[in-house]
Amino acid sequence: MKGFNNLKVLKQGMQLVAAAHQLSDAYAQTDMAGLVKEINLLAIGIPSSIAHYSGAENQKGLGDALEAVVSINAKLETIGSDSAEVANFRQLIEQEHALIQLALAKGEGRSFKKPAKQSRLGLSTKNRKPITFTSTQGFQAELF
Question: Could you count the other beta carbons within 10 Å of the beta carbon of residue 126?
Answer without folding.
Answer: 8
